[in-house]
Write a structure and sequence with these properties.
The longest helix has 23 residues, at 272-294. The protein folds into three domains: 6-80, Roll (Ubiquitin-like (UB roll)), CATH 3.10.20.740; 107-212, Alpha-Beta Plaits; 216-574, Rossmann fold (3-Layer(aba) Sandwich), CATH 3.40.50.1780. Helices cover 33% and strands 14% of the residues. It contains 19 helices and 19 strands. With 587 residues, the protein is of the alpha/beta class.
Length: 587
């Protein structure tokens, strides 16, 4: 396709020239005409199934889908004739008639694309009556709930699962009125190859996919006088929570978030970045040990639970390459029910740990048997997504915008800037290099910013020179991108020392539990992800300590409790194991 070739067209009486290959929808956007759409998403393949974006084209005796039809020379398009507006409204009315009538109690009320589209088109009554589809609610899973009654068959979930994540767990099965989006053979989400990443939730325009709600569990724990409720918050939360209260995208809101949590009634608020700093210290030592012959290379990071699920199901042969470090969330939860419980004289079962995470897969992670103190006491009791926390704050009547800035509690409240950048892709790698560079050379290094591993674009390979060693590193976010690196490893095509993988686009800032984008942004929008990442880098740059091993809290933890990085005690508490969960017939 020659993008330099210009095509002359007319849209609603206005003449313009656009590059060859431009769709009618994109051409209309250039002159300020927004054509309604539902199934379309700029980062996914074109499907043209909803037909909401139809337009009239001269000399064509049928309406054309503007999202998928490319312009041709002298094409004349009308986007807003009375007939087109009526046809679009008929389509939306038919979708609504086959949709549950529970808008006021739906989780997406006020933020539903179908609802907003119906309003903008002037749909004020339901004109069609008849049989409506009815499917059982699938809520048996630990992370993802599937409500097929609300599905409009736009196919976005199918495409994001296949094209961005490379999992191919979902498809449209059966035909006609019985068509349903489901895993193979109608399996439950947990019994399928689902990796629990939640990207299907993010791209769904209605509420056909949702995270498993945990808010009532937290309310009950707060109200229980026998529970000491402790909250830990992931780094990416502070870069996104403000969006739920009207702040511009990319506004850091750490202090207001802490104050809001205290007003909800929790007893203590700690920083997951402490766990991130611990992860860096343990992973850096593990990497050096492997480089010196104490393990296989490349070492694969293990902080992203969606990626771990993906590895166990699709690349079990690489399990020996995965770092044995627990995720930062679980490391901190372990310390809260061991070290912190001992220091405060509380029983582990009386400490109720709530983790605020951007990640739906964290709900799955906390129920893995290796993350329990014993068979009955999980290290992390409950995970709330950013969306759930925003709802709880609004439900409680807290005006987030005017809250004063609070501070994390001691002794697990001081974290370094290295912990903050965990929330964006490349951040784990960069934080590790800050510590590894000093451990390898034995000298203090002035270099803090390893911009060569920042990979919001999805995939990056780089060489990083540390002393006499040149490290070959890879960074990937979104599992289709990860496959490129992993296949090179499996086929022995390139030698890496360490690879960072984040399951979600952009890393945790684009997690399946983050806020639905505000007006002007789309899910997976690079500008949205870049703004959230910028917020984390801004927080990092303002921290007085930016290397994990320099954190005085981490130093005290090792002196008082863990002995040293990689010790027997550290390995018992901070490390874990993985096992193959590969279904029959995969790869």
């Amino acid at each position: 396709m020659n993008s330099d070739t210009k095509i002359n067209i007319t849209i609603d009486g206005r003449k313009l020239a656009v590059p060859k290959g431009t769709t009618i929808m994109d051409a209309a956007e250039k002159i300020g005409v927004h054509i309604p759409r539902l199934c379309y998403h700029p980062d996914l393949s074109l499907q043209g199934s909803c037909r909401v974006c139809i337009v009239e084209v001269k000399d064509m005796n049928f309406y054309m889908a503007s999202c998928s039809v490319q312009v041709w020379e002298n094409m004349e398009v009308k986007t807003n004739t009375p007939e087109i507006r009526q046809a679009r409204r008929d389509i939306v009315e038919l979708l609504l008639e086959n949709h549950p009538r529970d808008c006021q109690t739906c989780e997406r009320d006020g933020n539903c694309e179908l609802q907003n589209l119906a309003y903008s088109m002037g749909v004020r009554e339901r004109l069609f009556e008849g049989e409506r589809k009815m499917f059982p609610l699938e809520e048996s899973g630990r992370s993802v709930v599937r409500n097929s009654d609300k599905c409009i068959l736009c196919g976005r979930c199918v495409r994001v699962c296949a094209e961005i994540q490379g999992v191919h767990n979902l498809s449209q099965q059966y035909r006609g009125f019985k068509t349903v989006v489901t895993p193979a053979h109608g399996a439950n989400m947990d019994d399928s190859v689902c990796i629990q990443c939640g990207q299907c939730i993010n791209v769904c325009p209605t509420a056909s996919f949702l995270e498993k709600r945990s808010t009532e569990d937290v309310w009950e724990a707060i109200a229980d006088p026998g529970k000491f409720v402790v909250v830990q918050t992931a780094p990416s939360i502070r870069a996104a929570i403000g969006e739920g209260f009207g702040f511009p995208v990319g506004t850091p809101a750490t202090g207001k978030m802490i104050t809001a949590l205290r007003r909800l009634g929790v007893d203590a608020v700690f920083d997951t970045n402490i766990g991130a700093d611990l992860t860096i210290v343990e992973e850096a030592n593990e990497l050096i040990r492997r480089i010196n012959g104490g393990g296989v290379l490349p070492m694969l990071t293990s902080c992203s639970p969606g990626w771990i699920n993906f590895m166990e199901k699709f690349y079990p042969e690489l399990i020996p390459n995965a770092s044995t470090c627990r995720s930062p969330m679980t490391m901190l939860s372990v310390l809260l029910k061991t070290y912190y419980a001992e220091k405060t004289g509380r029983r582990p079962e009386d400490i109720y740990v709530v983790a605020i995470m951007p990640c739906v897969a964290k709900k799955y992670e906390i129920r893995r048997p290796e993350h329990f103190l014993d068979k009955h006491i999980p290290y992390t009791d409950t995970v709330l997504t950013t969306r759930e926390l925003i709802w709880m704050i609004k439900c409680y009547g807290i005006d987030f915008t005017i809250l004063p800035d609070g501070q994390f509690d001691e002794p697990l409240g001081i974290a370094t800037g290295a912990g903050d950048i965990f929330g964006t892709t490349g951040g784990v790698m960069e934080a590790s290099l800050r510590t590894a560079s000093e451990l390898i050379t034995g000298k203090s290094s002035e270099k803090l910013e390893f911009t060569e591993v920042r990979a919001v674009e999805g995939l990056r390979e780089a060489e990083v020179v540390i002393g006499d060693i040149t490290l070959n590193v890879g960074v990937a976010n979104g599992l289709v991108n990860a496959k490129e690196l992993l296949d090179k490893v499996v086929r022995n095509e390139k030698k890496f020392h360490v690879i960072e993988i984040m399951a979600c686009p952009g890393g945790c800032i684009g997690g399946g539990g983050q806020p639905y984008p505000p007006q002007g942004y789309k899910i997976l929008d690079p500008a949205l992800l870049a703004a959230r990442a910028k917020a984390l880098y801004s927080i990092d740059s303002q921290k007085p300590i930016r290397r994990s091993h320099k954190n005085p809290v981490i130093q005290v933890l090792y002196d008082e409790y863990l002995t040293k990085p990689g010790s027997e005690k550290a390995h018992e508490l901070l490390h874990t194991h993985y096992e193959s969960k590969q279904p029959r017939g995969i790869r």
